[in-house]
Amino acid sequence: MGGRARDRARDRPPRTRPETFMNGRGRHPIAMAEPILKWAGGKRQLLDELYARFPADFGRYHEPFVGGGAVFFDLEPPRATVNDANPRLVNFYEQVRDRPDELIARLASFDDPEGDPDPDLPYAEETARGREVDAYYYQQRARFNRRPYEGEFDPLEEAALLCYLNRTCYNGLYRENADGGFNVPIGRYADPDWVQRDRIRRASDLLDDTEVRRGDFAYVLDAAEAGDLVYFDPPYEPMSATANFNEYSASGFDREDQRRLLDVAGELDDAGVWVVLSNSGVMYDAYADAGFRVDREGATRAINSDADGRDAVDEIVATNVPPGERREADQRELTRY
């Protein structure tokens, strides 16, 4: 693996990011983009391990399971596609890209999550299913959950509600029930920042040059070309029967999806595309048998529905990039914030 022609990517000079910008008041450091949302399975702790397996240079960057975007926002690729199966998440990124100031203003209009429900908004007393609403947070959660049950919705309002709930819910967890309803209870924070003003503006600038997609991960078979890089970070195959946390969306991600993902990765490799994958340790043999170079890494889950379960877990990183064509340490340092 990894020995096929990727001439277009190799012929380009190495890419770097400017660290400062100049305006009328002098030169200033550039603030890098950061994830806006907390998201289960985020890769901020594994960035160095991932980048050590990325190619030294590549064409376009593709991330079919973008989630919270920890890698995408840290890498800041100049040409990219990002995708997710969660329609609410994709809508959020579209609103960040296209209407950042309106989104910030809408977020700033929201109240303290533990405050009283707003009598001028729907669900001030009970949810659509007749459950009592006793806090502003639960009123907004009920409004957010109108989408599975009603045909019309305001995309800007839904994006703002997603950010608000994500930043004020228990442990920043995103979880849907079988009907597609967000069902995470309120969190307890001294001073939660749900507006995320600076992060939204920086993310908007990056997303402005990015194709945002919603759908199946297999789109990369048509979108990726030889010399491009595809990073797959799917919902992990559970380490045990009790370790499963695939409830990012009601549709889930099962073992057949894992097998299909491995087939797609193999087709991309055959087409000369650089491929990097991360998953739980139970997928080690499957990735190794498919010809990928696989390494084990340890990471602490930043988001776990059980506070006592945030221990180091066995994760793997697989790649078709030969060691001699990977990024050097000094290049990785350019991507840190």
From TrEMBL:
NCBIfam families: dam (TIGR00571). It comes from Halorubrum coriense DSM 10284. Gene3D superfamilies: Adenine-specific Methyltransferase, Domain 2 (1.10.1020.10), Vaccinia Virus protein VP39 (3.40.50.150). One of its GO terms (biological process) is mismatch repair. The lineage of its organism: Archaea, Methanobacteriati, Methanobacteriota, Stenosarchaea group, Halobacteria. This is site-specific DNA-methyltransferase (adenine-specific). The keyword Aminoacyl-tRNA synthetase does not apply. Residues 1-18 have a biased composition (Basic and acidic residues). Residues 1-26 are annotated as: Disordered. The keyword Transferase applies. Its EC number is 2.1.1.72. GO terms for molecular function: S-adenosyl-L-methionine binding; sequence-specific DNA binding; site-specific DNA-methyltransferase (adenine-specific) activity. It comes from the Archaea. It is an enzyme of class 2 (transferase). Belongs to the N(4)/N(6)-methyltransferase family. Keywords: Methyltransferase, S-adenosyl-L-methionine, Transferase. It catalyses: a 2'-deoxyadenosine in DNA + S-adenosyl-L-methionine = an N(6)-methyl-2'-deoxyadenosine in DNA + S-adenosyl-L-homocysteine + H(+). InterPro entries: Ade_MeTrfase_dom_2, DNA_methylase_N6_adenine_CS, M_m6A_EcoRV, MeTrfase_D12, SAM-dependent_MTases_sf.
